Amino acid sequence: MTGVDRVEFAYxxxxxxxxxxxxxxxxxxxxxxxxDRQGCEHFLNAFPDASFGPADRLSGIKRGMHDARAxxxxxxxxxxxDRCLPLRLGRMLRKHVPSGTCYxxxxxxxxxxxxxxxxxxxxxxxxxxxxxxxIPLDYPQYQRPGNDDQFRMFLQRAGRSADLLxxxxxxxxxxxxxxxxxxxxxxAVAHLGVDMPDAGSPPEGPWTGQPFFVCLGTIEPRKNHELxxxxxPEIEDAxxxxxxxRGWNNDAVFARLDQKPSRVHELNGLTxxxxxxxxxxxxxxxxxxxxxxYGLPPAEAAALGVPVICNDLPIYRExxxxxxxxxxxxxxxxxxxxxxxxxxxxxxxxxxLRKGAAVPTWExxxxxxxRLV
Length: 373
Description:
The protein is of the alpha/beta class. It has helices spanning 3-17, 37-46, 67-78, 89-96, 113-120, 135-138, 147-161, 170-180, 225-231, 251-258, 272-281, 296-303, 314-320, 332-349, 362-369; strands at residues 24-28, 31-35, 82-84, 102-105, 126-131, 164-167, 187-189, 212-216, 239-243, 264-267, 284-287, 308-310, 325-326.
């Protein structure tokens, strides 16, 4: 899952465990699906293994729908409280949802005028929107064409209509208020929690039994894999494992990876458990990102006790303090030197007892959020 996916999953998991009434609103290919608590539990239990069952006949009407989506939407329809065409969304919500309900949007998607109008038609309803970052506006060069305009509309809509904007950091809150000025919406900061899955058996390869470093994240321009490819010929007797799927607009890096550079390995499709297993065996985790909204992977590595080298970004300083080794992405010499030092220390120590660093928890996050919504 992506970072945003992990946040949405954490919210679903926590809210299902809360005693209050719970509903889930899903936009499907054929309108909207409304889940009650039981329906949300069914989805939560089915999601990790994608055990959604077969696609129904309705999904077969929509040409080109991915099989996984067809099965997921069919599963949701089988366990729904109600469903409707888009024009009847307000009527469906008023029929089932009690007054005083708070609508939580946690994923930067589906916050449309239609949804907001329908939610607001429920008596005394409130709206809380989670804003993960403002990267599309601050770094449009790293976005798909048009993403900045789409995000700008989302943020303006949230700023005008939401009763609360939840931000994952002080940095994000400052960025949100800067972009929304002169609007001054109510905001709250709640750092994201870090909870690690159990370690699985890591994949084996030429790196097995040898010193190796891990870089975790989608292979896209702002993750700056190019820096690591530039310096790796100088890192002798160590492997680089790039764990993540290929993104977009990064043809130069893809071409270099296709050439199979020495001691550089591209791994995708790994499970969370496999990644944890690799992290635990690695010398260090490397994050030369040029921009980040939060940076869950470095926090996860720190929680495992894995040394972290990362670009000197304000968000990393806020979340991780002095835990990582910081090196400016402009300084290739410093990155090379820091990696060599860690490799040498690992080689000399042979076996190092690692103790995880104290990082933010989901319990603290929800203690802040749930008292406000």
